[in-house]
Design a protein that fits this description.
Length: about 70
């Protein structure tokens, strides 16, 4: 049995990793084109780090396959 350890990261980390602005991240979430955040408090959200990593990897692969 493999135990998967999930890490939550905050919006600021997502912005740094993607290079996008906050408004664009929310637009992509609304369009179901970006991983949904997890509510961690009354007014706080975070993202599952592995989902963000997978999204970044997928986006790179799609971009490079279109060019080739």
């Amino acid at each position: 049995m493999t135990i998967k350890k999930e890490t939550l990261i905050r919006m600021q980390d997502v912005l740094k990793r993607t290079g996008f602005c906050r408004a664009w991240i929310y637009r992509l979430i609304h369009q179901k084109r970006f991983p949904e955040p997890v509510k961690i408090g009354e007014r706080a959200i975070a993202f599952v780090e592995s989902e963000i990593d997978e999204w970044i990897e997928y986006t790179i692969n799609v971009s490079r396959n279109r060019i080739a």
